[in-house]
Design the sequence.
């Protein structure tokens, strides 16, 4: 598994960045790395590139199998996910939502939720979900579908939601010219991450 770990003295927070672009060194990862640079020393960072994993499409065996990981890649990914206090989904905006790689990763969460012996459900509750996305369109409202997907996912899992850091760009590296996004990146992980609650539901 491609797991790039940068560990400093830990203060208990552990960020897992899950990159779901279809190309290496994409805009979404560049923006996420700009935000991650601002994390205090002492916060652990792990980066996983979903493209580098041999992760097949999720097969729904929740009601038929023992839920054991089907591949080494799935087991490593589950352990990395369970070991994080903060999960950052780093996905380009694809068709107004997350990329297929990112969606496939989320589909695996459904299997991990019900797998015997899995700590995923307990570990995710109380944790924090964040998003980083880059889009070609300048109108950020058009990323609402992605934002809602991540917010509701956090609400379902009783997680806090830190919001989505948005950037603009199409060609690789173009986001580095988006000064507004880079300015937001500087403070993104410092912002409040309230408990996510479905619209109309009691907190
Ligand atoms: C399959 C695909 C779907 C896309 N869909 C959208 C979209 O719905 N809205 C948008 O603004 N940009 C869309 N784009 C453009 C990407 O969001 C943009 O190129 C972004 O910079 C890619 O990020 P990356 O470099 O991290 O992969 C799409 C690109 C691809 C390849």
Sequence:
């Amino acid at each position: 598994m491609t797991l790039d770990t940068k560990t400093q003295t830990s203060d208990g927070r552990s960020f897992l960045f899950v990159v779901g672009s279809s190309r290496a060194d994409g805009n979404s990862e560049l923006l996420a790395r700009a935000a991650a640079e601002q994390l205090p020393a002492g916060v652990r960072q792990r980066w996983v590139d979903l493209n580098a994993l041999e992760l097949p499409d999720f097969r729904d065996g929740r009601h038929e199998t023992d839920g054991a990981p089907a591949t080494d890649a799935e087991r490593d990914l589950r352990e990395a996910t369970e070991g994080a206090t903060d999960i950052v989904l780093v996905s380009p905006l694809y068709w107004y939502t997350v990329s297929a790689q990112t969606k496939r990763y989320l589909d695996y969460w459904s299997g991990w939720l019900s797998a015997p012996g899995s700590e995923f459900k307990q570990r995710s509750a109380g944790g924090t979900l964040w998003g980083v996305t880059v889009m070609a369109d300048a109108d950020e409202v058009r990323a609402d579908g992605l934002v809602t997907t991540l917010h509701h996912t956090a609400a379902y899992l009783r997680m806090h939601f830190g919001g989505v850091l948005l950037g603009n760009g199409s060609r690789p590296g173009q986001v580095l010219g988006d000064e507004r996004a880079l300015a937001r990146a500087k403070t993104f992980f410092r912002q409040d991450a309230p408990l996510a609650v479905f619209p109309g539901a009691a907190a």
User: Anything to note?
Assistant: The first strand starts at residue 3 and ends at 6.
